[in-house]
Design a protein that fits this description.
Blueprint (H helix, E strand, L loop, with lengths): L1 E4 H12 L5 E5 L2 E6 L9 H22 L3 H20 L2
Parallel strand pairs: 1-2
Antiparallel strand pairs: 2-3
Amino acid sequence: MEFHNEKDFSEQAAAMLHSADPVVIKVDGKVAGVFIPTPDGELPMDLRLKVDAAATERLHRQRVELGITEEDMEAEIKEFSEVRRAARSRR
């Protein structure tokens, strides 16, 4: 496993993404992200489920912190869909 700070990562990202070893990127001493290479180009299902669960939990926490309700989200999606549908029909 390789550990790099944000400066190293920004300067050597392409090389790091071709590494055979996992790469941990730190910003201000805290882990900002982890790149895990996959030889066959696929994430193992157990890891995919953990990543999805972590992302879902983080998005939920952010939505609650911002005071965004599920109804707000549904209304915004509906509005977006209507605008997009109207734009398509004008073509």
